[in-house]
Each structure stands twice: as C-alpha cells, then as structure tokens.
Design goal:
The complex is a heterodimer of chains A (469) and B (298).
Chain A: H1 2-27, H2 51-60, E1 67-74, H3 77-93, E2 97-104, H4 109-119, E3 125-128, H5 132-136, H6 160-164, E4 176-188, H7 189-195, H8 203-217, H9 228-243, H10 258-273, H11 280-286, H12 295-298, E5 304-308, H13 312-318, E6 326-328, E7 344-352, H14 359-370, H15 373-379, H16 389-397, H17 403-413, H18 436-445, H19 451-465
Chain B: H1 2-48, H2 53-56, H3 70-75, H4 85-116, H5 122-132, H6 137-151, H7 160-163, H8 172-182, H9 187-195, H10 200-229, H11 232-237, H12 246-251, H13 262-282, H14 284-297
Classes of the chains: A alpha/beta (469), B mainly alpha (298).
C-alpha cells in the first residue's frame, strides 16, 4: 500500500516535471526585444528597379572569390523563410559563394551570441541588435567598420543621420540599420465606440476617456494599459514635452533633476488615479506576461496599448477576427509646451564580423539582401520598413508595405522623434526584477513608496549609468 | 441462539463489506480528483493544439470551440528543407542516447571507486565532487564554451561538446545517489566473489551492477529527461539548422515581437515529448523502485 501511494505520488510528480519542462519551452519567450519585424510579405513579385540600385548591384557584382560565408539571425517562421529565400537568390546570382546559415528564436539567442563574441567565432554576416554595439563592440574590434566596404555596399541608400547613430566608439560604422521602430499608441476603436467617444487625439481626450470608460462601461474597462517599462517610456515622453531634452543625451549624460523626474512620475500616478490606466496589481493579477496574451485585451476591456510600431502585428493577430479594430494613434500635441516627442530607435542591424576573411563577399551578400531589388523583394518587410531608399522604393512599388505599419511609422516620424540612448535599456533598469523600472513602478502602483521616493530611486539608478550633467 | 449469532456475524460481515466499499469509493474519488487536477494542464495543452491564439488565451476550457488542425499541419513544415520535426527528434536522440550511456558508465565507475576503495586524497576529492553539486550551470557556460571552442567542438556535427563531457562523470548527483545505494549492498558479496576468483572489474560488472540496477535505471531516466529537455546546450554548441534538436526546433517559430501561432508550438511540443513519456511509462516500475530504495535506505 505504502509503495503504491508512493508510486502514485512519484508518477504525479513526474508528470508535473514533464509538464513543467514543456511549459517553459512554450512560454518563456517574452523578453521585450528591440528586434522586430512587420507583416508577413505576400508572395514576392518581380519589382521594378531603380537606376540607383541597378548601378549599385552592378558595381558589386564585378569580381569576387569563391568562398563560404556564415550568417545568422533570430526571428520567427516568416522571417526564417524570407531570409532563406533571399539567400538562395544570392547563391544563384553569385555562383561560387556558399552561405551557411544558422537561425533561431530570440530566447537565449543573445546568450549564445555573447559566448561567440567572447571566443571570437561569430559568423561573417550577422543580424545584430542596436545595443550590441556598446555591449560587444565597445572597442570597435568585433564588427567591421562598414565604411571600409563602401565600394561594395551601397551606403548612399541610407540617410547619414541614421548611419551616424550606428557608430562605435572609434567612429566606425558597426552595423547597417535595417529599419527603425518607434513607440506609438494603438487604440481598440470598438471599445471607444462602445463608450460613445472618439479615440483620443490629445492627452486631455485620454484623461477624459478614463472617467467615461468607468461610468459607461464599468470599472474593468480602461482606455490604456501600460506595463512598467511602458510607464518609464511614457514618463520620458512627458518630460521631453515639458523640457525638450532627451532623458539621456547622446554624450551619455542624464538630463533631468530629481524634481523634474518627480513631475514625470506624478504624471503616471495621475493617469492611474484617473482610471486611465489600471494599477499594476490589476494588470499582474491576470497573469498574462504580455498584452497579446491577456484575455482583457483580447476582449477589448483594455482599449489601448503603447508599443513599438514593429510589434503591432502580434496584437492585431491576438485580436483574431477583430484585428481591424486596432487603429494607430496620433501623438498628443498637448503633452507639454515643447510639443510631442516619440522614441525612435534602430529596430535591428546587420553587421559584418571584423574577423571575416571575406569582407568583400560579405558586403556583397549584405548589399544583395538590403539594397538589391531581387534580394529586397524576397526579404520583404520581415525586419520592418526598410531604411534603404532603394529597398523602400522596390517594396512600395510592389505594394508590399503594410499600410497600418506605414501609418504608425509616419505617426512616429511626424512627432519630432527624439534621440534614444541605448543606456535607457540598460540591464539595471529594464527587465525582470531586480530592475529599476519594474521595481519602482510596481512599488509606486502598489503604494509602497510615494512619488518622492520613486523619483529618488530612479534618479539614483539613472545617474549610476549616465552621470548628471 | 445459534441463529442470532449467525445473523450478527453476517451483519458484521456486511458492515465490513460496506465499509470496504465506501473506503474504496472515497479513495478513488480523491485519487481521480487529484489526478485530474494534476493532468489538467496536459489535457488543456492537448486541447489547445486545436485552438486559435485568441481562444487559447481567453478560455480555460480544454475543448476547442472552433477546432483547427492547422497547428499540426504547420508542425510538419520544414525550414528551407533543412530541418523538420522528425529530423529534429532524430537529432535529439542521436546525442541523448550516447549521453545517457556514457553518463551511466562513468557515474557507476566513479561511485564504485568512492564507495569501496580508500585511496590517497579520497576525502578531499569526494568533498570537491560534492561541492560541484552546488555549482550552477550558468557560471560554467562561458568557460566551457571557450574550452570546447579551443578543442574545435563548437558546431561539431557529432555533438562532441554535448556528448564527450558526460564520459567524465559530470553528473555529481548520480554519483551521490549511487554511492548511497552502494552502501546498502553488503561487502560480503564482493568478498565471496573475490574468493571465487573475480577481479575488481568483474566484481563490479557481475555482482554490483545487477544489484544496482534500480538505481541505474533512475539515473538513466533522469539523464534522459534532462538531456532531451536541454535547450541552452544545443543552442550554444550546435550552429547548423540541420542539426537542431527538438528543443530548439520547437522554439524556431516563436518570434517574441511579431507573435506566432501557439497551436503550432504546442503541437510540436506535444509530438516531441511523446517518446519521453513512452520511455517513462516503460521504465516506471524500475524507476520508482530505484528512487524509493535509494531514498528510504540511504
């Protein structure tokens, strides 16, 4: 009997272990990342080519050595497919160059790449994150300065201002910014219709919507839902609108005083008090680790989100048949005396290893993927709306640019995009607890600390990584 | 008189019988309820493989409202002809099985050495080994990667970086468990074997190993599960999609930014854990004996 009971207990425990095992492989992939893609491109059509890109492609295709290149990227299904297709096209166009690819999901990808950087066997061509420049290329010896291959890779397709932000400490161009991404609002129009109001165009609208939602729809309806990191970003929007300076300057200095930070925190606190955003307790109580998995968002109880424009697709998908209810919001002109401001950052980059034996061929591959009409058509908008002018023209003519994504991009670009320093995402600030944004905004929302204490904690955290001016 | 006695006796028997039945019913009800609670997530997962994303996140009901088999259809898709689920599962077992075999051989040898022989530095080495039990894998990742990279094992098509270390008794927990088990095997048996002419190795193979069998099976099962659930190891040391094991394959479609179809991921997971579940059920009795014997007598 004893043995039987034990047997039952142990087999239950075993079943639990097995379940736990597959649970973690199924759900842990939630780390907010800077990488992003846009709508899966429809089957590629042969696109008209611009004279500029033809010239660029021609210039590069002259002479090359037969060799084997290695390349890797992270992403999901459609990105894997599109990129492999583009690479097949490259191999057909440049016979003799073989490309060995490696791809995976984002979860733990950076861990594996970090190990490669330490040992120096990173692949020739690589999809990289913007903040990796500071992390793994601090001395400029990890990634090739792409100016050295500018005869092969057509840099003229990119705005100099965009290229400038991808410089390493030595002034070398560490990566090609494939696409930009910005933070913007998305509203669930159906819920606003239900409440009998328009989607918010100004901050005043939004604040008023809080009360309207509460009265007309009930306590569980909120016009906007934002997590801890979103709160930190919205706070900086507010501060930028008041004082007109990015929170961390390009030189890496923290721009505000503790009192100014307190104002920003008070702004977030006020939104919560006015029923504009739910408390963290209420959000976390549901147990969804991101809003696309939240039943309240899917049901329309949370009627607004604040997200990277490249990540909107997952929210549209999450709404299922009601996906078309989600509309792009406009930045609020009445945020403060200095107007609006939106974060815009490099969504992701492609870099070439400084240790590559075939820089010319690697640059050929990159040029094919990012500037050559053939490659661009195959790649689609899997990595966002391309910065490359040639690529944009090609995709635009082929009708491959998702209108909603384009609208969101425009909303960000029109809002006086502000400088975004990667230090804002420092691991001491962003991420799971213990990280400052999570800790401070949770404690504030749970009323464990007051605004002054929150400002003090944030100020200490910011100035620890970005000294005050 | 005799009649009443019989009556009371039969009444008593009936009462005992009733009690027995009640107790059986109560026990089974409790077992079934608790069992259902335990298995519920698995049932939900099976149901979820037939659901759309929006339904997965909005209902706890395991029965899908609008069933779809798209998850399974997608699960069969290959990535550029490089890798599909069957290939990935084959890859998994092509390193899991050697890992299990090597772990068992090396752990039994090491445990035998520590349990039965006194040699210079025995205590210090045993202490050092036990201390390793508390060393988390995370701190080993980078140094191990650098070392294996020097050996040229990173990206090896034979999974050298995953398999070779297991030949050196790296699973401290198993050694500890086997030593505990060995302490309960009387030394008289080995003495008898020695008198009959067995050398040390023969004693191990012919006498100790058969007695250790339940413990060995537990170790093998644990190692089998840990290895086939390992994600970071293959991610670090395998860098060609064609060689990806199931753990990585399952995650390939999971794009945190643009979202993905959970039914596909769940369907792939479900298919890839089936062999593990089969192995577990096949070896269940031995396994339970192994842990309980080690646990109770140790």
């Amino acid at each position: 009997m004893k043995k039987k009971v034990l047997a039952v207990m142990l087999s239950s425990a075993m079943a639990a272990t097995v379940l736990a095992g597959c649970g973690s492989s199924g759900s842990s992939d939630t780390a907010a990342t800077t990488a992003a893609t846009e709508a899966a491109a429809p089957a590629a059509t042969e696109a008209a080519t611009t004279a500029a890109t033809e010239a660029a492609a021609e210039a590069g295709s002259g002479d090359y050595e037969n060799c084997t290149l290695t390349m890797d990227w992270w992403g999901g299904d459609s990105r894997h497919e599109a990129t492999q297709k583009a690479i097949d096209g490259f191999k057909a166009k440049y016979p003799g160059i073989d490309v060995q690819v490696n791809f995976g999901a984002w979860s733990d990808w950076e861990t594996a790449k970090a190990a490669e950087y330490v040992s120096g066997n990173n692949p020739d061509v690589q999809q990289t994150n913007f903040d990796w420049i500071g992390k793994y290329d601090a001395d400029g010896t990890t990634f090739l300065d792409l100016n050295t291959v500018s005869d092969t890779f057509d840099l003229t397709q990119y705005d100099q201002s965009v290229l400038d932000i991808c410089k390493d400490s030595k002034g070398g161009l560490a990566g090609i910014p494939v696409a930009m991404t910005g933070r913007t609002f998305y509203w669930n129009k159906a819920t606003f219709d239900q409440a009998g109001i328009e989607t918010p165009k100004t901050l005043a609208d939004l604040e008023a919507a809080g009360a309207t939602f509460k009265d007309k729809l009930g306590d569980n309806y909120y016009p906007l839902v934002i997590g801890e990191y979103d709160r930190a970003i919205l706070m900086t929007y507010y501060l930028q609108a008041q004082y007109g300076e990015p929170i961390i300057s390009p030189e890496g200095n923290f721009s505000y005083t503790q009192d100014q930070l307190k104002e920003g925190i008070a702004f977030i606190d006020k939104l919560e008090d006015e029923h504009v955003i739910p408390t963290e307790e209420y959000i976390l109580g549901e147990g969804a680790d991101s809003m696309d998995k939240s039943a309240r968002f899917i049901n329309g109880e949370y009627a607004g989100i604040f997200e990277w424009d490249t990540a909107a697709k997952k929210y549209i998908t999450a709404l299922g048949d009601n996906g078309s209810n989600l509309v792009v919001g406009t930045p609020f002109a009445d945020m403060g005396p200095k107007g609006t401001g939106s974060y815009q950052k490099v969504s992701l980059m492609f870099s070439i290893s400084a240790k590559t034996e075939h820089p010319h061929e690697a640059a050929l591959l990159l040029n094919y993927l990012l500037n050559d009409p053939e490659g661009v058509t195959a790649m689609g908008t899997e990595r966002g709306i391309p910065n490359s002018k040639a690529a944009y023209d090609t995709l635009d003519k082929a009708g491959m640019i998702d209108p909603m994504n384009a609208e969101a991009r425009k909303a960000v670009e029109d809002s006086n995009p502000m400088y975004w320093n990667p230090l804002f995402d420092d691991s001491s600030l962003k991420g799971d607890s213990p990280a400052l944004y999570t800790d401070v905004f949770d404690q504030l929302s749970y009323d464990q600390i007051d605004e002054a204490a929150a400002a003090e904690a944030l100020y200490a955290g910011y100035t620890a990584i970005a000294p005050a001016k | 008189m005799a009649n009443t006695k019989t009556k009371t006796l039969s009444q008593a028997q009936a009462r005992i019988e009733r009690r027995r039945i009640t107790s059986v019913i109560v026990r089974y009800v409790i077992l079934i309820v608790v069992g259902l609670i335990m298995v519920y997530p698995l049932i939900w997962m099976v149901g979820a493989t037939f659901k759309q994303n929006s339904e997965i996140f909005t209902t706890l009901n395991p029965i899908p409202k609008e069933p779809t088999t798209q998850g399974y259809i997608d699960a069969m898709k290959s990535y550029g002809g490089n890798i599909n689920i069957w290939r990935a599962m084959l890859n998994t077992y092509s390193y899991v099985i050697p890992e299990v075999v090597l772990t068992i051989i090396s752990s039994v040898l090491t445990a035998y050495g520590f349990a039965r022989f006194r040699f210079k530095g025995h205590d210090i080495m045993f202490t050092a080994m036990m201390a390793m039990l508390f060393l988390p894998q995370v701190v080993l990742n980078v140094p191990q990667y650098l070392l294996y990279n020097k050996f040229g094992w990173v990206g090896s098509p034979f999974y050298l970086a995953l398999i070779v270390p297991t030949a050196f008794a790296t699973e401290t927990y198993f050694i500890f468990m086997l030593i505990q088990f060995l302490r309960n095997i009387p030394k008289d048996l080995e003495e008898a074997a020695a008198i009959d002419g067995c050398n040390t190795l023969q004693t191990l193979v012919r006498i100790i190993v058969p007695m250790l069998m339940p413990a060995i099976v537990s170790c093998a099962l644990f190692k089998f599960m840990w290895s086939s659930n390992d994600f970071l190891g293959p991610l670090l040391y395998v860098n060609t999609p064609a060689k990806y094991p199931a753990t990585i394959f399952v995650k390939l479609s999971m794009d945190a930014d643009t979202g993905f179809n959970w039914n596909r991921v769940l369907a792939t997971s479900l298919i890839s854990i089936l062999p593990n579940i089969c192995v577990f059920f096949a070896a269940q009795n031995q396994f339970v004996d192994g842990i309980s014997a080690g646990g109770v007598k140790g």
